[in-house]
Design brief:
A four-stranded antiparallel beta sheet has the order 1-4-2-3. It has one domain. The chain contains four helices and four strands. With 126 residues, it is of the alpha+beta class. The longest helix has 21 residues.
Length: 126
């Protein structure tokens, strides 16, 4: 039995942004927050007795945009986009966050072109 390893090529390229680098970015710049960090922060805020509804609303908005984007392009994305200013306020423990928490989008390709390339790659393996 032969196995083929799919060479998955994403139409979007990301570059890691370290938590310590966020302080040098403009507050209105958009950064992708890892989906695990979004969900865990949302859970901690909702379980906290002192709920900050503004922070919860911003996290829900980022998660909803992420889900909408996934449905639009029919691909999974690594996280939701948030403004750096909001990240600094909501994720106040930046120094303790893992290195893979934040990313910036560096390049976007056409989704149509990406799908054509993927269909050609998959048909060549058949």
């Amino acid at each position: 039995m032969k196995y083929y390893v799919a060479k998955v090529k994403s139409p979007v390229k990301y570059v890691r942004v370290l938590p310590s680098e966020l302080s040098s970015l403009n507050d209105d710049e958009m950064v992708v927050v890892n989906r695990v960090r979004l969900n865990s922060k949302l859970l901690r805020l909702e379980m906290n007795a002192k709920k900050n509804s503004e922070h919860i609303t911003k996290l829900y908005e980022a998660i909803n945009r992420m889900i909408k984007k996934e449905r639009t392009i029919d691909l999974m994305v690594p996280g939701g986009e948030m403004a750096v200013g909001d990240i600094k306020i909501i994720f106040n423990d930046l120094s303790n966050m893992p290195r893979n928490s934040f990313m910036k989008i560096t390049r976007k390709e056409s989704i149509k072109k990406y799908r054509e390339e993927m269909s050609l790659t998959q048909s060549s393996h058949l």
